[in-house]
Amino acid sequence: MALNDLRMHTVWSFIRASPYMNLYFTGILFFLKQDFESLYFAIVTLLVAMSNPVLKQIFRSIYSLMGINEAPILGRGGRPKGATNCGAFLKFPDTESNTFGMPSGHSQSIWFFVSYIILSMYDKHNTLFNTKHLNDKVKFVSIFCLIFFAFLTSYSRVVIDKCHTIQQVIVGAIIGIIMAYVAFILKGKIHKILNKHLDVKK
Questions:
Q1: CB count, 10 Å around CB of 136?
Q2: pLDDT, mean of each 10-residue run, the chain (202 residues)
Q3: Which of 16, 44, 14, 15 is CA-nearest to residue 29?
Q4: In sequence order, which ranges of 67-135 are alpha helices (DSSP H)?
Q5: Are 154 and 107 in contact (CB under 8 A)?
Q6: How far apart are the first and last CA of the chain?
Q7: DSSP tag of 59
Q8: Of 19, 51, 71, 138, which one has the fewest beta carbons inside 10 Å?
Q9: Is 112 helix (H, G, I), strand (E, B) or coil?
Q10: What does the angle CA 170 – CA 175 – CA 180 come to, to the nearest 5 degrees?
Q11: Cβ contact 173:108 at 8 Å
Q12: 3-state secondary structure at position 70
C-alpha cells in the first residue's frame, strides 16, 4: 500500500511506533523506580519484542516445509499483496516489505504490554503501579482504555497500513497475551530465587 495522508497522520504514526513506545515507557519506569518489578517489566518487554523475528522465521519455515502460502484457519503467512513500509517508522522512498507477516509483531508487543499491566493492576503484591487506592470504576476505565489502544493498534496494521491479515494480528495478540501470563507467573518465582541467592551470599 502506497503512502497517503492517512498513513502519515500523527495519530497513526504514534500507534505504528508503539513497540518502541512500550520499550521507552518501561525504560523510564525503571529509571524512576529502580526496583525489581520495573526492571523485570523492562527486560521481558524487550525479550518479547526480540522474539517476534524468531517467531516469524519459525512460521516461515513451517509454511515453506509444507509448500503452502496459506494454511487452514491461519490463512496467509506472508504480507498482504502490495504491503509497503511495514516497520515502526515510515521510510522514504516507499518500498515493498519483504519480511514475513505471521505473526504480527505490533500486535504481539502491544497485547503483551497491555495484558501485563492489567495483571499487575490486580496483583495484591504489585509494586509496579500503585493501584491499591483506585476503586473498581477507575480500574475498569483504565483497563478499557488499555484494551482499546491494543485493538486500535491491531486494527491499524490491517486496515490503515495493510501490512497484516486479520489472522496475523489475532495470532500475534494471542501469543502476546500468553507471553504476558507466563512472564507474570515466572516473575514471583524468579524474585524468590534471587532473594534466596542474595541471602546465601550475605
A1: 7
A2: 70 88 94 91 96 96 92 91 86 82 96 95 79 81 94 94 95 97 91 72 42
A3: 44
A4: 105-121
A5: yes
A6: 60
A7: H
A8: 138
A9: helix
A10: 125
A11: yes
A12: strand
